[in-house]
Amino acid sequence: MKDKVNVLFVCGYGVGSSAISESIVKKALAADGINAEVKHTAVGEMGSQSDWTDIIAISKKLAEGASFPADAHVIEVVNIMDGKGIAASIGKIVDEFYPEARKN
């Protein structure tokens, strides 16, 4: 039973789009009542975060060439500025797999 979900945003170098998405989505998750810790990283460092990560958000283009743990919940992001849309996708996973992480 997890009362907090760990979300990892992944981009090519871990400094640009993943950092922007992290900031935007963090606010949207809080507004949706989802207790989440959010981090960002480069695609090459993603594996080192696998023990911590519950949900991976990654651009559709990067996801095509990446490998994920078998039990990973992966969201392929088309628009990194769509904080509410990404948060809604995370919310669906939370409701199904981590319902204790929703505060309302």
UniProtKB/TrEMBL annotation:
GO molecular function, one term: protein-N(PI)-phosphohistidine-sugar phosphotransferase activity
Keywords linked to the UniProt accession: Transferase
Top-rank lineage group of the source organism: Bacteria
Record domain PTS EIIB type-2: where: 5-98
SUPFAM superfamilies: PTS system IIB component-like
Single GO BP term: phosphoenolpyruvate-dependent sugar phosphotransferase system
Keyword Transferase found: yes
Record-given protein name: PTS system ascorbate-specific IIB component
Lineage: Bacteria, Bacillati, Bacillota, Erysipelotrichia, Erysipelotrichales
